[in-house]
Design a protein that fits this description.
heterodimer, A: 355 residues, OB fold (Dihydrolipoamide Acetyltransferase, E2P), 6-stranded mixed beta sheet, B: 290 residues, mainly alpha, globular, binds adenosine-5'-diphosphate, binds magnesium ion
Chain lengths: 355, 290
C-alpha cells in the first residue's frame, strides 16, 4: 500500500538558467511523515510537484516503491495530494469532490457512495455531501481536500502547506488530526511547510531546504539540537551564532571570535580556517554575577520578554547582543531590564556548523 | 421631504447620465420600432393612422421572408459555432501561456482582423477563395479537383468572413474566464486519476461555461446583425435580414414593414438566447449561471 520515495540527484530549472531545485537527494521511507521545510521560494513546491508528476525533473530520477516514475504522467501515479488552496472543484458538491478519484477509477456508484461516506466520517464531515465547497469554512474545505486525497487509498500523500490558511488554533488541532490520520493509515506523507514549529511538531524526519538545495535531513531533535549548517541553525528556532578562528592550545580547542570573546569547544572541529558555531538560547543559564563556574560571560539585560512558560532575554555582552531563554518554573531567578547577569553554558552545547 | 432627498445616494448621480443615455438610445428607439411596426403609416406625416397587424401578416404569409430569417439565423449559428471551435483552444492556450512575449504575440495575432479594413479583408479572402484564387489554383494544379470549388459568394464564405472578424470577441471573452480558473484544479483532477483530456472536460470546460455563453451571445448578436460583410462576401447572392430591412427602407420606403422584420429578428434572438442559457445551465448543473 504505502510506498517509499527515492529522489536521486534531481534538478529542475524552469528557464534553463536558475535552478529552482538543485541536485536534491532524498530517501523517504515507507509510512514516514516527511517534511520539506524552508523559506518561501526555496523549491519545496517544485519538489512536491515533481513527485506528483506535474513537472518533469530537468535531471535526476524519482522512484516510488522501487519503480522509476520520472516520466510517468500525474494521473497514473496513484498519489493523493492536498493543495495549498485546497483546489476543490467549485462546481461540484462535497460528495462529488470526494468521490471524483473513485469515479476516475471506474468504481460503481453504490461503492463510491459508501467510500465517500466513510472518508467524510474520517474527517468528521458526515452529512455535508450535498454542500458546495463555497458554502464551507476554511477548515471544513481543508478536511474535504484531505478526504478527497485519502479516499483513493494512495501510496503516498502529498501536502503543500495544507494548514497555511487556517488560524492558529484551528491549525494546531488540524496538525494533531492530520498526524493521527497519517499514523492510523500508515501513509507515506510528504508535507511541505515554511512553518518550523509545524514541521518540528509533526514530522518523523525533516528536510531543510534553502535556495533549491537540501541543507540537512534529520529527525526534529537532530535538526534542532545538532543543526548541520549555519542556515539550519539560523532558520530553526532562535539561536546565537558566532564566527571566529579556531585556536588550539594544549589539549583544548577555542574559537576566538574577537578580543572580547573566546568560546571553548568540546570537540575538535577537524577543519582549519574560520568556523561558525551556534548556541541555543535555552542552553544559557543566567545567574547573578559573581558566582563563576563554567564557560561564560557577564552582561546587562537589555529586555526581558515574558512568554508565559519562559522568559526570553536580550542581553548585551561582549559587545554584542545575545538571546537567553529561562524556564519560568520557579527554580530560575528572573531578571528585569538593566540588571547585571552572568551567562553560563557547557561547551558540549556549542554546535559546530558548516557554512 | 427632506428625508427623501437626503436618502438619494450620491452614486445615483453617477448612474443618472448612463441611465438617461440608455433610455434615450435604447428603450426609446426600441419602443418606436415596436410602435411603427403596428401602425398603418407614419403618424408624423399622415393623418388617420390606425393600428394594424398587416406587416406581421405579410411576413407570415410569404415563405420568402421566412427563408431570409432562417438564412440569417443559420449564418449566425454557424459563425458562432466556428468562432467557438477555433477560439476556445486559442483562448485556452493564451490563458495558460507563461511567457509575456508569447502572450503579447498571440494577442496581436488575434486582434489583427479587427485592425484591417473590411475592404482589404474581403479582397484578401477573394484572392484566396475565388474560382481563380490561390486555393482553387493549387488544388487544380495538383490534380485533386477537376473544376474549381465554389468557395466565394455563398453562405460558406459569409460564415468564414464573419468568423474571421468576430473571433477576437470570442477569444477575449474566453481568455478572461479561462484565465481565472485555477490551473491547480486541473492538476487536482489529474492527481485523482483523470487524464489531461478528461480533466479538461470535467473541470475546465464546465467552469468556463459562463465565458462560452457570453462569447457565443456576443458573436451571434454581431453575426445576425452584420450588413457589410454578408454583402461583400456573399456578393448579393445571399439575402439576410439586415439587407432586407435596409432594402425595405431605402428602396421601398416601407418603414413599417422594416420595423416588423426588425421586431421578428429581435424576438427570435431573445428566444434563442434564453434557450441557450437554459441548456448550458442544465448541462453544467449550475443554477447560479442564469
Ligand atoms: N512555474 C514556474 N515558472 C518559473 N519559475 C517558477 C515556477 N514555479 C516556481 N518557480 C520558481 O522556482 C523557485 C522555487 O519555487 P517554489 O518551488 O514554488 O518555492 P516554495 O514552494 O519553496 O516557495 C522560485 O524562485 C520560483 O520563482
Ligand atoms: Mg510553495
Amino acid at each position: 500500500m504505502s510506498a517509499a520515495i527515492d529522489i536521486v540527484a534531481v534538478t529542475k530549472t524552469y528557464d534553463g538558467r536558475t535552478r529552482a531545485v538543485d541536485a536534491v537527494d532524498m530517501a523517504i521511507r515507507e509510512g514516514e511523515f516527511f517534511s520539506l521545510l524552508g523559506p518561501s521560494g526555496c523549491g519545496k513546491t517544485t519538489t512536491l510537484r515533481m513527485i506528483a508528476g506535474f513537472e518533469t525533473p530537468t535531471e535526476g530520477t524519482i522512484a516510488v516503491g522501487g519503480a522509476d516514475v520520472t516520466h510517468v504522467p500525474a494521473h497514473k501515479r496513484d498519489m493523493g495530494m492536498v493543495f495549498q488552496n485546497y483546489a476543490l472543484f467549485p462546481h461540484r458538491s462535497v460528495g462529488e469532490n470526494v468521490g471524483f478519484g473513485l469515479r476516475m477509477r471506474g468504481m460503481d456508484r453504490a461503492m463510491i457512495a459508501r467510500k465517500v461516506t466513510d472518508a467524510l466520517a474520517q474527517v468528521e464531515l458526515v452529512g455535508y455531501e450535498d454542500r458546495r465547497p463555497g458554502q464551507l469554512s476554511g477548515g471544513q474545505q481543508q478536511r474535504v481536500a484531505l478526504a478527497r486525497a485519502i479516499v483513493i487509498e494512495p501510496r503516498v500523500l502529498l501536502c503543500d502547506e495544507p494548514l497555511g490558511a487556517l488560524d492558529k488554533k484551528l491549525r494546531q488541532s488540524m496538525q494533531f488530526e492530520l498526524k493521527q490520520l497519517q499514523r492510523k493509515l500508515g501513509l507515506t506523507m510528504v508535507f511541505v511547510t515554511h512553518d518550523q514549529e509545524e514541521a518540528l511538531a509533526m514530522s518523523d524526519r525533516i528536510a531543510v531546504m534553502n535556495a533549491g538545495k537540501v541543507e540537512q535531513i534529520g529527525t526534529p531533535s537532530e535538526i534542532y539540537d545538532r543543526p548541520g549548517t549555519r542556515f539550519v541553525a539560523d532558520f530553526i528556532g532562535d539561536t546565537n551564532l558566532f564566527r571566529g578562528e579556531v585556536i588550539r592550545t594544549g589539549g583544548t580547542c577555542v574559537l576566538r571570535v574577537d578580543s572580547d570573546l573566546s568560546i571553548e569547544l568540546a570537540e575538535e572541529p577537524g577543519t582549519i580556517g574560520p568556523l561558525s558555531v551556534a548556541l541555543r538560547p535555552e542552553k544559557i543559564v543566567l545567574t547573578a554575577p559573581g558566582a563563576h563556574a563554567g564557560q561564560g560571560l557577564d552582561g546587562i539585560v537589555e529586555s526581558a520578554n515574558f512568554q508565559g512558560g519562559s522568559v526570553l532575554y536580550r542581553i548585551e555582552a561582549a559587545g554584542r547582543r545575545l538571546l537567553a531563554q529561562q524556564p519560568n518554573n520557579g527554580s530560575h531567578e528572573l531578571f528585569q531590564a538593566g540588571a547585571a547577569v552572568a551567562l553560563r553554558w557547557t561547551p558540549s552545547d556549542i554546535v559546530i556548523l558548516k557554512d | 421631504m427632506k428625508a427623501t432627498r437626503a436618502s438619494v445616494s450620491p452614486i445615483a448621480w453617477l448612474i443618472a447620465p448612463s441611465a438617461l443615455l440608455f433610455a434615450l438610445f435604447f428603450f426609446l428607439p426600441m419602443g418606436l420600432m415596436a410602435l411603427i411596426s403596428v401602425l398603418s403609416g407614419n403618424p408624423v406625416v399622415q393623418s388617420n393612422v390606425t393600428f394594424t397587424g398587416k406587416y406581421y401578416a405579410r411576413i407570415l404569409s410569404d415563405s420568402y421572408y421566412f427563408e431570409v430569417i432562417w438564412t440569417t439565423i443559420r449564418i449566425g449559428l454557424f459563425t458562432t459555432l466556428a468562432a467557438l471551435l477555433v477560439g476556445y483552444p486559442l483562448a485556452h492556450w493564451m490563458a495558460r501561456i507563461r511567457g509575456r512575449t508569447a502572450y503579447a504575440l498571440l494577442m496581436m495575432s488575434v486582434l489583427t482582423p479587427m485592425l484591417t479594413g473590411i475592404v482589404v479583408r474581403t479582397f484578401a479572402w477573394m484572392a484566396l477563395l475565388s474560382d481563380k484564387g490561390a486555393i482553387n489554383q493549387t488544388l487544380t494544379g495538383l490534380g485533386l479537383i477537376a473544376k474549381p470549388l465554389s468557395l466565394m459568394y455563398n453562405e460558406f464564405s459569409i460564415v468564414l468572413g464573419l468568423t474571421h472578424i468576430y473571433i477576437p470577441y470570442m477569444v477575449l471573452t474566453l481568455v478572461g474566464v479561462i484565465g481565472r480558473i485555477d490551473e491547480r484544479l486541473e492538476h487536482a483532477a489529474q492527481n485523482l486519476g483523470a487524464s489531461p483530456l478528461r480533466a479538461f472536460f470535467e473541470v475546465t470546460l464546465p467552469l468556463s461555461l459562463p465565458g462560452i455563453l457570453a462569447g457565443s451571445l456576443l458573436v451571434f448578436a454581431l453575426a445576425i446583425s452584420a450588413y457589410v460583410t454578408p454583402i461583400l462576401m456573399g456578393g448579393f447572392q445571399i439575402m439576410t435580414l439586415p439587407m432586407l430591412i435596409y432594402q425595405q427602407i431605402s428602396s421601398s420606403f416601407n418603414v413599417g414593414f422594416a420595423a416588423a422584420l426588425g421586431m421578428v429578428l429581435l424576438a427570435i434572438s431573445l428566444a434563442l438566447i434564453i434557450a441557450y442559457n437554459r441548456i448550458l445551465g442544465m448541462i453544467s448543473g449550475q443554477r447560479d449561471l442564469q
